[in-house]
DNA sequence: GAGTGGTCTAGACCACCCG
DNA sequence: GGGTGGTCTAGACCACTCG
């Protein structure tokens, strides 16, 4: 076995974690196989056991490993794509899944928040929100109508940004809001006339409707969006835990 | 401030975590408020800083607190219902949301696994699977057609169970498989003739289609299900993290 | 520069599982 | 009893943020 060499600038536990992940991905560690004990691994990587545990902890959280108290640490069975579980935006998704993403700005306006929008964003009804409507294309085919509402107070300069080449979230992060989580409600609906025209489908065709609130890591709601996805071309994968 | 008293038998970091959680719940620590530094907290609770960090870590993972490197640790803003994030079954969901759940067994058969089913369950194509179809009612209205596939090898006695009064998962757990997570793919589809008849909707009406693989905590796939939910009555809420 | 969280060490004892 | 993971300590230095 090759000796482990630390790289400067990257935390050791991250390096070890990725090294383990690679071993699993390459099949050096097989499904169901028991890992060496934490003490052995710590010795192998020349770190303290606490550091070793931190690496393992991350992979357990991801579902790649599991532990049995008094028994050992094992490689979990299926290769769950944790990616699918993660909150991503349209452009990241395109990169992962290998399609070409484009967005066309349909409209941008500053309007008073409707009650439902206000509740989701935790602002007063009637407070100003920026409403951004975009049409999104995968490999040139329109797949999603995206209708976002953002509190004006949080991002007063949003209107001056080019939203066709960068994602809203990029702008949020530039303003110091780290996008952390989203809660989304999903429904199957019939396409309205407007949505049908935009996506070039029949009125009444099935559409995956998504109502989403996005939160920064301090818990501030920063975006509330209605999303209409073409039923025949779009699917959404999520993972849930008990 | 009252002195912190350790209880025997419960890990200290759990006690501290719950103590902090209570302070937040009771409003002693307010939204957005900065906590004392980790060193101060460690001193207050009379533990090492590493132990203190473990308590905080858990609450950060839950989204109750957030940290800013070089700045401090803060109480996050809204209380997200973590419930929505969790994997639940139809009967639990009914209990939470306050509707009356019923299931009607449509069919149960032992068949060879189709390629797609086999891949999801990580068994060979043609291996025996138990296919259980049920129709599910909320307050007496049919809302879901549930078409589950379970590896026969794992649960050979499944066929003798009454599936109208207990959930599949109850049976899995009796057999020693802890249901841990599920990956589900969602689509909007048109109702087929069969599905439409069962749920008393029009053929072609929008249906929220869900393809779900359920895993035990060691990663074994134990159930693969096609689920057809009435679009006009059913919605699904999920939370995603980055 | 002072204060914060982020990483890391080299130990220790405990709780659990198995043969 | 022997090995495993679970918890915990008392330090240390680093990276980041802010005034």
Can you walk through the features of this model?
Chain A has 242 residues and is an alpha+beta fold. Chain A has 2 domains: 12-75, Orthogonal Bundle (Arc Repressor Mutant, subunit A), CATH 1.10.10.10; 80-237, Chorismate lyase (3-Layer(aba) Sandwich). The first copy, chain A, has helices at 12-25, 38-45, 49-62, 90-97, 115-121, 168-174, 193-199, and strands at residues 65-68, 72-75, 101-112, 128-138, 141-151, 179-190, 206-216, 221-230, 236-241. In chain A, the strands form 2 sheets. A 6-stranded antiparallel sheet of chain A has the order 3-4-5-8-7-6. In chain A, helix 1 (12-25) crosses helix 3 and helix 2 crosses helix 3 (49-62). At the A-B interface, strand 6, strand 7 and strand 9 of A face strand 6, strand 7 and strand 9 of B. Chain A binds a DNA duplex (19 and 19 nucleotides) through helix 3.
Our count of helices of chain A gives: 7
Poorly predicted segments of chain A:
none
Largest sheet of chain A: 6 strands, antiparallel
Largest interface, Cβ cutoff 8 Å: A-B, 51 and 50 residues
**How are the strands of the biggest sheet of chain A laid out side by side?**
3-4-5-8-7-6
Fold blueprint:
Two copies of one chain form a homodimer.
Chain A: H1 12-25, H2 38-45, H3 49-62, E1 65-68, E2 72-75, H4 90-97, E3 101-112, H5 115-121, E4 128-138, E5 141-151, H6 168-174, E6 179-190, H7 193-199, E7 206-216, E8 221-230, E9 236-241
Antiparallel strand pairs in A: 1-2, 3-4, 4-5, 5-8, 6-7, 7-8
The structure holds a DNA duplex (19 and 19 nucleotides).
């Amino acid at each position: 076995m090759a000796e482990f060499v630390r790289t400067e600038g990257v935390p050791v536990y991250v390096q070890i974690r990725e090294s383990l992940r690679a071993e699993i991905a390459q099949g050096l560690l097989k499904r169901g196989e028991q890992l060496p004990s934490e003490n052995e691994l710590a010795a192998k990587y020349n770190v303290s056991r606490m550091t070793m545990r931190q690496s393992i902890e991350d992979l357990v959280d991801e579902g790649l490993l599991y532990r049995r108290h008094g028994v050992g640490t094992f490689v979990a069975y299926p290769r769950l794509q944790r990616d699918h579980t993660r909150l991503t935006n349209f452009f990241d998704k395109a990169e992962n899944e290998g399609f070409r993403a484009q967005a066309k700005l349909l409209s941008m306006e500053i309007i008073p928040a409707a009650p439902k929008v206000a509740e989701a964003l935790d602002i007063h009804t009637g407070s100003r929100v920026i409403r951004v409507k975009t049409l999104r294309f995968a490999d040139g085919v329109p797949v999603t109508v995206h209708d976002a509402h953002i509190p004006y107070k949080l991002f007063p300069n949003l209107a001056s940004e080019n939203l066709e080449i960068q994602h809203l979230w990029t702008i949020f992060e530039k303003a110091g809001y780290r996008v952390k989580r989203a809660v989304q409600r999903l429904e199957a609906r019939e396409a309205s006339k407007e949505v049908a025209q935009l996506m070039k489908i029949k009125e009444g065709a099935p559409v995956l409707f998504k109502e989403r609130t996005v939160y920064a890591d301090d818990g501030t709601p920063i975006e509330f969006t209605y999303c209409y996805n073409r039923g025949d071309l779009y699917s959404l994968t999520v993972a849930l835990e008990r």
